[in-house]
């Protein structure tokens, strides 16, 4: 029953934005310095069970490389409706990406996580390189990635 309630809440937040209180959430990501091409990143929400819920942002414009963002690709089914309008350029070594997305207030402090997958051409792919709980207390706190991401935080 909780899964159904969470799905209805998330669907309502996406489908009925005029009726749901939402707030701007800024995702701040700093990449480590590495050799190679720019990184592709997928930012997405998962529920308390780690199940994919929705795409927040995808850094990297060539959809043919999205399959390398494996957990996000599996969850989103690589359905273009999941990422239309929420994509931008890939991010280079040592660079910073700052993106603002709208999230329903009901998702904050409700067991959701922000996750980030990363991949660089001819290099390793990192599934759920960053996992942070979407909480009021977690806002502004930095988390280290396990691959290309040096630091990730979000601001409410």
Automatic annotation (TrEMBL):
Keywords: Signal. InterPro entries: DUF2271. Residues 1-22 form the signal peptide. This is DUF2271 domain-containing protein.
